[in-house]
Amino acid sequence: xxxxxxxxxxxxxxxxxxxxxxxxxxxxxxxxxxxxxxxxxxxxxxxxxxxxxxxxxxxxxxxxxxxxxxxxxxxxxxxxxxxxxxxxxxxxxxxxxxxxxxxxxxxxxxxxxxxxxxxxxxxxxxxxxxxxxxxxxxxxxxxxxxxxxxxxxxxxxxxxxxxxxxxxxxxxxxxxxxxxxxxxxxxxxxxxxxxxxxxxxxxxxxxxxxxxxxxxxxxxxxxxxxxxxxxxxxxxxxxxxxxxxxxxxxxxxxxxxxxxxxxxxxxxxxxxxxxxxxxxxxxxxxxxxxxxxxxxxxxxxxxxxxxxxxxxxxxxxxxxxxxxxxxxxxxxxxxxxxxxxxxxxxxxxxxxxxxxxxxx
Amino acid sequence: xxxxxxxxxxxxxxxxxxxxxxxxxxxxxxxxxxxxxxxxxxxxxxxxxxxxxxxxxxxxxxxxxxxxxxxxxxxxxxxxxxxxxxxxxxxxxxxxxxxxxxxxxxxxxxxxxxxxxxxxxxxxxxxxxxxxxxxxxxxxxxxxxxxxxxxxxxxxxxxxxxxxxxxxxxxxxxxxxxxxxxxxxxxxxxxxxxxxxxxxxxxxxxxxxxxxxxxxxxxxxxxxxxxxxxxxxxxxxxxxxxxxxxxxxxxxxxxxxxxxxxxxxxxxxxxxxxxxxxxxxxxxxxxxxxxxxxxxxxxxxxxxxxxxxxxxxxxxxxxxxxxxxxxxxxxxxxxxxxxxxxx
Lengths: 360, 343
What we know:
Largest interface: A-B, 27 and 25 residues
Number of domains of chain A: 2
Distance between the termini of chain A: 49 Å
Order of helices and strands of chain B: EHEHEHEHEEHEEEEEHEHEHHEHH
Number of domains of chain B: 1
CATH class of chain B: Alpha Beta
Strand order of the largest sheet of chain A: 8-9-10-7-11-12-13
CATH topology of chain B: Rossmann fold
Shape of chain A: globular
Radius of gyration of chain B: 20 Å
Number of helices of chain A: 12
Strand content of chain A: 15-25%
CATH class of the largest domain in chain A: Alpha Beta
Largest sheet of chain B: 7 strands, parallel
Largest sheet of chain A: 7 strands, mixed
Distance between the termini of chain B: 43 Å
Number of helices of chain B: 11
Structural class of chain A: alpha/beta
Strand content of chain B: 15-25%
Mean pLDDT of chain B: 96
Shape of chain B: globular
Structural class of chain B: alpha/beta
Oligomer: heterodimer
Strand order of the largest sheet of chain B: 3-2-1-4-5-7-12
């Protein structure tokens, strides 16, 4: 019998967790839990989960899961982690890790102190193009990173955005860092593998977008964010935009040898190479090389699709696989704790500048 | 008598408020989520001298808003429901808000639940039509769905919502009237129900064929809700709501093309829809959900199984459509055409 999994928090993102857990044959989803019984019941009914609870203590006591997925808003992450770790669970945590950096430190400290594993749902990092980028970096194709640009788009008219706009009491509105606090992990966690400074220089500016005039789509909510980050060796731009189209998710890594451009939405990695031919010839060939990269990536995607490995949350499944494996083998978790904390610290410093009245 | 209408700012809600005023109910609390929707209601109420619309803003997900909404009312029309979004959103907006409202009613101070009548707008989607076979007639005696998890999430959430109302009726002792409309349409609504077909990419797959379309023109539907909701003999009953002269899905599509705009459509006969559904199901299972199972054999049987419908029970209460389908469809298409031109 493999690991027994349980989920606490039965909102939208829990669907993704359930679907990906069910694809891993070596584990078993035993129960789901939500303070709101109707939400727990509906998730269990739709996915055929054997048990549902509205009290996490009861679920931990009765089900005795090996791993608890915490998919609740971050306000509850610290207390739930403490409760779950005390019950002997390993933790798979939905982002954002916590409301404040000190809480993120406490969460990781709790897991380490109890000898339990913990990781955070940085799923785009485990998408195929992200793994290809890692390979390019580790094999020296990029050279030494000089600068990184991470972009995340957001659709306020989409499923998540609409829910946010329609409900003034939505938990995201109650985050001290509002919308940014819910999305910044996915902007910053793509930068931290290349920028390992503990306290880089950070300059952030945020505003309400008004592209094309007219009323802002998000009311009073700040929805555009630009951040400059400078470490000892590497600099970065982090951009969040709710108005730029298409709604993209890209990463550009400028190296001393070559530059890589990763598109997480269409799952491509293109390499912009140093010119090797002289003069006009050097300007003639590069577009063909980039086109060749895209063609190769496109064919690879077709291959992935034909082998049923082209799901939206494919990265989540891969991350879960690695996390469950690290528990079974007692090896280090797939994302280093230091990196999770660097993301959290960076996020707090950005939000301090955006919402100084809250993040004092 | 103070009346509460939840979802008063919505497509159907506006007309229910109008019909209540027309039937002489003047003291109405309109519960709205968005302030922008209030102006139209107030404008309309000017046509009814002596009317008192109380605008109450909030979100029924908040229990405190439910307490405010339900205070001092003796007749509740509950229309608020989730129509789109993720499954979690649909359940939160249809079922959780209903439970909050019913709890507020059950625990209300000074005005016992037993003296209150609650009118729920449910859906045709709650019926368990699949085991009945192709072409079965759907009336109020048709059993409710046994396998909601096999249906679309909207129907699943509406079934759970209706079950909740019957459960609370037992506990709290209020009078309950349930209306189950078919496809509500009209100016302000959408163009196509999935009973006509599905738009997939640039092509509209016409799956409804010659099936009857259980249309309920929004004004007729609102009238039905008010007539049944206030009728002395309707307590504890459920009523199907659809118009009398129902068109087929193919006629609706043909008229749409003629009056609104040309669209590319492919007609799939039912047996081909079933085959496509089988293939999609199989692929969905084998690929572990790489493509969504938007059509399954179960969903196909529920939506395009060629059912016929009865509104005889509603008619027995005295309800008659205020607008004939021959007038309602052109009015709807005119609106859709204007919307299309505006876009």
